[in-house]
Amino acid sequence: MFLCPDRSELVIGPKLFLYPDRSELNYTKSNRPLRNQNDQLLVRVSVYFHMLKEFNIVESVLGTHLFFTLQWTDEYIRWDSEEYDNITVVNLPLLDVWVPPMVLMNPAGSFGFLSKEKDMLLVQYSSKGLASLVFAAYLESTCKPFIKYFPFDSHTCHLMISHLGYSMGEVTSAPSHVYVNNFVDNGQWIVDELNLTEKWLIPGVNESQYVDLSIQLSRRPEFLLLNLFIPIAFLICMNLFVFFLPAECGEKASYSITVLLSLAIFMTIVMDQLPPLSSDVPVVSIILCMHLANNVIVCTCTILSLNYHHRSDTRDIPCHLRLLTMLVTWRTYKSNCNKIGDVPKRTAKENMSPGADEKNSNITETDDITHRADVSEDIDRRHILTWQKVSHAIDRWNFFICIMMTILESGLVFYHSFQDM
């Protein structure tokens, strides 16, 4: 414990204000303004939230413009207003009086005092000894983002405000009010809630109390949806329709690869918007990764389909491809080894039979016409299966499978995401 000078003269408020030479008043600004230095000095903190400048989730830095009001009781700067022309309030330079050394405990850079422009600030004193310091500050604090539901993400950031240079129990900070009226809106973030509460560095130890300003933020997703995610959805849909592109056009494979590269570029843009964290993997990253894998599958299937399309008809078609083609087209096919001209005619010999007489000639001609119609109908029903038709059927099958995979994967991811919320 240290000894402070004798301050029997309590009426020094107007003297500090009127006399330029204040050294003779025996006021030491390095000591707490208490008669008993063993007592605890309480500093009340009020915050006016002016503007949220930025929240960089990649660097985990929150920038805010705030106004602070600090209030405490100075037991030495007080006077009887009736003896001094009813002066009830005086403003004294901050450099000439004691002020609480308030700091931000979780800064993004170095620890710094809240009031940086000290030579421009004034402390207001009332005749009862109540001191008030009002100042503005731009603070950059650390804030761990929660990006699991990006771009519909919400975050809770904290500004830990306390004193510096005094041991526990000498100076204590306590919250007073937080004002949110008429603050400047931010185009990217919505300030949902502001709370000014007291917390403790050491649980259960009242002397470790500090003021905590919690800011709940939610993103405005419209910009990212219109300029990033809706184009990605269009690319995913366009990639599926590659199976309807004719193989004869010669651009089927290049089209699929172009869409794949475009999706990879969009994924890079999305990753630039997110911090490299592994604790909370964004749902959108999982979805994009699955769709990228689907696009690789689509490219592979497209290349195989083109390979089948350009095969020679002299090569036999395997049974599993024949069954797949019949399943997709709902038609039966004959082998590509058989020709239409090889279809037998049942009545060829009967028509050339020497035992036929004129009495039955009309009946024979009618039967022959009917038989030829039946054979023609049978040939139309039993199409010849070619590799081009197999390729066409595989494209339809791949389109159905890929669109079902896309819907199923997205549905499962969203279901598990909403279960966790």
From TrEMBL:
Keywords, sorted A to Z? Membrane, Receptor, Transmembrane, Transmembrane helix
For molecular function, the Gene Ontology terms on record are: extracellular ligand-gated monoatomic ion channel activity; transmembrane signaling receptor activity
Q: What SUPFAM superfamilies does this protein map onto?
A: Neurotransmitter-gated ion-channel transmembrane pore (SSF90112), Nicotinic receptor ligand binding domain-like (SSF63712)
Topology relative to the lipid bilayer, per the entry, is: Multi-pass membrane protein
Report the protein name in the record.
Answer: Neuronal acetylcholine receptor subunit alpha-6
Any idea where this protein resides? Membrane
What's an example GO cellular component term for this entry?
Answer: membrane
Gene3D superfamilies registered for this protein in UniProt: Neurotransmitter-gated ion-channel ligand-binding domain, Neurotransmitter-gated ion-channel transmembrane domain
Q: Name one Pfam family in it.
A: Neur_chan_LBD
Q: Where is this region: Disordered?
A: 348-367
Domain Neurotransmitter-gated ion-channel ligand-binding residues, every copy: 26-221
Membrane-crossing ranges are 223-246, 253-271, 283-306, 397-418
